[in-house]
Each structure stands twice: as C-alpha cells, then as structure tokens.
Amino acid sequence: MEAALTENGEPLRHGLTWRIFHPTPGTDGKLPLLASSEGGSAEFEFEPGDYFLHVAFGRAGVTKKLTVPRDGPIEKQHIVMEAGGLILNAVSGIDARIPSTQLRFNIYKAEEGIDGEQQLVVEDVKPNTIVRLNAGTYHIVSEYGSVNAVIRSDIRVEAGKLTEAVIQHRAAQLTLKLVAEPGGEAIADTAWSILTSGGDVVSESVGAFPTIVLAEGEYTAIARNKAKVHQRDFTVVAGRNSDVEVLLN
C-alpha cells in the first residue's frame, strides 16, 4: 500500500499511519483493529475476505473497503489523500508581532453539522505549526490572550500545497498601573476590573501591574486599593501596546 497527496503526486515516504479493521463491529460497537503500520508505504498479509483500510496523514484521512480475493494476491493499493498543509500565524494591527505564547488557534469544519454546530477538527494549535488536513475549507478561530481578542476566518486548504495564513487581530496588550503621579511606581495590592463602554466586565485581576490583551475599543479601568476606588476611561488601538495609568484621586 502507498499513498500520495494528489493523483499525480509522489508516494509519501513518512508521516502515514495505516490501519486495517475487521468489517464486523465487536461487542463494544467498534470495528476491531487487526493491524497497523507507520511511516511510508506498508505491506500486510491477510486471509481472503473483506476489510476496511484507513490511512491517516496528520488530521487528513481516507477510508476504503478492501477485498482480498481467494485466487491470488491483491494489486497494489494506491491511495490518493487529496490533502494539504496549513500553517497559521497572526499579527496585531498592521504588522505588530504577537508572542507565540499568547496565540492559539482552533480549526473547525466550515460546514455545519446536523446539530447546527461546526465540528472541531483540531484545537489549541500553536503558531508556525504544520497541520495536515484534507483539502477543503476550514473555519479558523484565532485567540490572542484570554479576554476578548478573537478573530474568525475561513481558509481553504488545497491538495498537495502548504497554505500559510496570517490573521490580523484588532487588539493590543496593555499593562495596568495605579500610580500616585504620571510615570510613578505602580502601587501593589490593587484589584482591577475592566469594563466595556456598555458597562460589561471583561476582565478582573489583582496585582501591581497586570498585563492583559483587549480588542480594539473603549474601556474603563477601575482600580480598588485600601477601600478606595479609582477609575479611568481609555481607548485600545490595534497593535499599539501601552501602559494604562490610573491616578490616585
């Protein structure tokens, strides 16, 4: 058995996982696994009968029914994967680099299932990681930080090609500080709440200078220290990381 990414492509020499299943489900309702192999091409010996062959290349996969005849060996199985690769990355604003530790991607099938939900294909993908997928369109959810900087986009993966996609976030990283004077030292033991212009709380934290990522927009920072409350309205501009200083009343 051998597999290629496209009809006219060269057989893959590594990265494949081959599995052969019995066609009759077991008591657990699953098809019994009879044999497996990893690497490139593979060779199996089986008694005459029907089987299911599955070959995986990363998240790409093909399943085929296989019949072993009684009157001689079966011909070589050439499987066309119709698969490609996807590399994801993101910037903030026009071209501001985002640290890889603050980025994560979830990949979904673009079409909705019978329950109206999109099926998750792979989650928590790190930037600059090659994800092998069947050719088709996928819905990408990119998360920058852990608050509200989320971008969604549809990306098409073509068979035999490596698609590199850079997603543009409209967000920035901010450091919050409660200070006695502009540019002064941050005051410890401060509790923070960040509200949207509509009054919804999007983040809460405690510390002298917590760092958060927020989507572009208007916000209010509320700082609580020693039973006193101080606040300031501020604006987040995409790609413009900055300090947000709240002055003591």
Core attributes:
249 residues, Immunoglobulin-like, single chain, mainly beta, elongated, 4-stranded mixed beta sheet, 59% strand, 0% helix
Helix and strand arrangement:
Elements: E1 2-4, E2 16-21, E3 33-39, E4 49-57, E5 60-68, E6 78-80, E7 83-92, E8 96-97, E9 103-112, E10 118-125, E11 130-134, E12 136-144, E13 149-157, E14 162-169, E15 171-179, E16 191-196, E17 201-206, E18 211-215, E19 217-225, E20 228-236, E21 242-247
Would you kindly provide a brief summary of this structure?
This protein is an all-beta fold and 249 residues long. It has no helices and 21 strands.
Question: How would you characterize this protein structure?
Answer:
- This protein has no helices and 21 strands.
- The chain has 249 residues and is mainly β.
- It folds into three domains: 2-80, Immunoglobulin-like, CATH 2.60.40; 83-169, Immunoglobulin-like; 171-247, Immunoglobulin-like, CATH 2.60.40.10.
- The protein has a four-stranded antiparallel beta sheet with strand order 3-2-4-5, with no helix packed on it. Strands 7, 8, 11 and 14 form a four-stranded mixed beta sheet that branches. A four-stranded antiparallel beta sheet has the order 10-9-12-13, with no helix packed on it.
- A hairpin with a 4-residue loop joins strand 12 and strand 13 (149-157).
- 23% of the residues are buried.
